[in-house]
């Protein structure tokens, strides 16, 4: 019976942890780039839907609908791709936290790493493309992106968490419930007799 209780506690904890995964940025995983659309100068970024061309590197997903919720501490990285003409302003809870660098305006553009202009892993390091990394402090952040130069198109962002992130409430509940279950089982154990 004790083994069944322990299994139940561990199963419940696993289910809670799995369902409590941060749904930020449309479930974008570390190492993936979220791709977003913009309609022209002054427009705010939006979900791709069927309007985006995925990265040729296979490292992008539709960013989903903004505001994008991410957990800090970490960095929020934005890069243009495709044509090297767009620039962006980044907001956290509606407050400007910075702008990406000026684009070169060169056409046709060439991202570092070859003629591939759709892979954000190359474009983010290419000085021809507008990009920027924005530090996010501890806690939740609500990110929006506005196009401030260029033409309609698509670009990418990546959320890069840093170490020592405070556990979210569901994780704390999981740890607590497992400790309570284990302590209950250990308390109920009979002492061994020789």
* Termini separation: 24 Å
* Tally of individual helices: 3
Overall CATH class of one domain: Mainly Beta
Helix content bin: 10-25%
User: Into which percentage range does the β-strand content fall?
Assistant: 25-35%
Instruction: Kindly identify the CATH topology of one domain.
Output: Jelly Rolls
Give the averaged pLDDT, no decimals: 78
Indicate the multimeric state: single chain
Structural class: alpha+beta
Please name the CATH architecture of one domain: Sandwich
Helix/strand order, N-terminal first: HEEEEEEHEEH
Radius of gyration from CA coordinates = 22 Å
Count of strand segments: 8
Q: What summary fits the major beta sheet?
A: 8 strands, mixed
Shape: elongated
Question: Key terms for this structure?
Answer:
194 residues; 3 helices; Jelly Rolls; 8 strands; alpha+beta
Secondary structure: elements and pairs:
Blueprint: H1 2-19, E1 33-38, E2 46-47, E3 60-62, E4 68-80, E5 87-92, E6 95-99, H2 120-123, E7 131-149, E8 153-161, H3 169-188
Parallel strand pairs: 1-3
Antiparallel strand pairs: 1-2, 1-8, 4-7, 4-8, 5-6, 5-7
What would a concise description of this structure say?
With 194 residues, the protein is an alpha+beta fold. The chain contains three helices and eight strands. The protein has a domain at 27-50 and 59-161: Jelly Rolls (Sandwich).
Structural notes for this entry:
- The protein has 194 residues and is of the alpha+beta class.
- The chain contains 3 helices and 8 strands, in the order αββββββαββα.
- The protein has a domain at 27-50 and 59-161: Sandwich (Jelly Rolls), CATH 2.60.120.
- The protein has helices at residues 2-19, 120-123, 169-188; strands spanning 33-38, 46-47, 60-62, 68-80, 87-92, 95-99, 131-149, 153-161.
- Strands 1, 2, 3, 4, 5, 6, 7 and 8 form an 8-stranded mixed sheet that branches.
- The relative contact order is 0.25.
- Residues 8-24 and 164-174 have low confidence and may be disordered.
